[in-house]
Amino acid sequence: MTVDERLDRLTARHEALTESVEMLTRDLHEMKSRVGDIAALVGDIAEGTARLLHVAEIHEKRLSKLEG
Hints:
Blueprint: H1 3-67
């Protein structure tokens, strides 16, 4: 194998690695965005659950007063 052939192979490998790193970087940024969206959704669910718990406690107190 000549020096030129080796350089061509190294260049091709370098380009492939560069493309792979770019794709991984894009995927990582997309995943970070999705994690942020999921965190916001979980926060909304937790807030809604807390509100429902509060309503349930109020109803429980009202029923307790009515029963007794």
